[in-house]
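Morning - cobalamin inputs below, output right after.
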Amino acid sequence: MAGSCWHMEDIEKTLHDSLTPLGLEVYPFKIGWYNAVLSPSFHLPYPEDTLAVVVLSTPSMFERAFTPFLESHSCEGVTDPIDQCIRHSISTCVTQSFPGQEVNISYDYEMLPNRKPKFLAQTAAHVAGAAYYYQRTDVMDDPWGGKKMFGVCIHPKLGGWFAIRALLVFPGVAVGAELQQRPPPDCVPSQESRVELLERFNFRWQDWTYRDIVPTAECYSQQQKTYFSTPPGQRAALLRQWGFLPGGDTQTQKQNQGGDIVG
Ligand code: B12
């Protein structure tokens, strides 16, 4: 199909059908919704009716995409294996599903030369209706004085057991009234629970409890928790110990049995 023939509904369905089996969720939105809430230095340089899609990973991504990826690909040493897996999954889907179509992909960990993130993942998730972005400004008379408090997105079904992985922009696809903005479910409505959420996320994020601020259908498996609790520099050794990467040896295994668990 020629690039200009694609419609938003077809793109959403194609991405959904290809990425859902990998434990990923997709949410379309218009660039204008994103730019409307951000200061100009964070704006994305596209017309406001341009189609964008934010991609989330759910708990099952680890077993559905990551461990199969490790078993069938050789990971390159320098970048994080999860990032390699997500990049591989999304770029394969885009190349195979949208040949000839311009699709600009940005990942959550990518920075611009001015050291700002390529896109603000939480704002994208909020404006797309995927997960409410709770910020300090959502709490009246907050108790934190001059302290910097980071905001956190909560998904109506997954609570905090997800990550926001990528932004896809389709510069050649303008969207009209067929895409209407829907607010994300406000699943942490009370002032007390919002204070509790932001305190857990900012002061105790390593204990995972901010992720359970609402009841959830799924959470990370024990293996996934162990993986993410391991400092990034020690994760390759852990994967080797689990047999997912070649070159495992008893010395590496011994070194990592007592490894720090800091998240
Ligand atoms: C840099 C970064 C960090 C830094 C700084 C955090 C920060 N928020 O600035 C550090 C290293 C501290 C950090 C830590 C963590 N991070 Co971090 N981090 C990021 C990263 C890469 C960029 C965030 C950023 O720089 N934002 C810039 C600031 C200026 O944005 P902002 O505060 O949202 O301000 C904008 C909004 O307020 C907006 N705005 C204004 N009005 C309104 C109104 C509405 C309605 C809306 C929607 C927006 C809006 O305008 C402002 C800009 O103009 C994002 C991924 C990404 N690409 O976005 C992950 C991300 C925020 N981190 C994440 C996580 C999970 C963590 C950690 C728990 C560690 C981890 N990875 O497990 C810890 C927890 C925080 C802590 N207690 O330390 C997740 C959060 C997921 C979620 N559910 O929300 C993200 C999204 C990564 C991901 N892949 O999912 N992180």
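Note: Residues 249-263 have pLDDT under 50 and may be disordered.

O.
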